[in-house]
Write a sequence for this structure.
């Protein structure tokens, strides 16, 4: 695990790999390995927001692989599944932002 909460050995796949790990850890149902901590924060923070894309942009509220790649629906979906598996609060803004994509 990296200092930013991601789980990846490269910059290009940080959000993708972190989401996969969150889903895999949740599937084990082992409480000692499923504490999402920084992983959940990393994924939610990796969502493109208004400070990074203009309103109406196809990039707004999406999630990319990591690094500076553009977001796409596949990565957004996987990140949302990871956030769901990590029991992210249903009132967290990440869910409403995802509806914009």
């Amino acid at each position: 695990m990296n200092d930013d909460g991601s789980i990846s050995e490269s910059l290009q796949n940080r959000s993708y790999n972190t989401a996969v790990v969150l889903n895999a850890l949740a599937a084990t149902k082992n409480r000692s390995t499923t504490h999402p901590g920084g992983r959940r924060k990393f994924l939610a923070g990796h969502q493109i927001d208004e400070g990074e894309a203009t309103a109406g942009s196809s990039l707004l509220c999406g999630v990319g692989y990591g690094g500076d790649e553009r977001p796409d629906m596949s990565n957004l979906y996987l990140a949302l599944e990871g956030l769901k598996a990590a029991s992210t609060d249903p009132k967290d803004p990440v869910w409403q932002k995802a509806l914009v994509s």
In short: Residues 25 and 70 are 27 Å apart (CA to CA). Residues 14-100 form one domain.
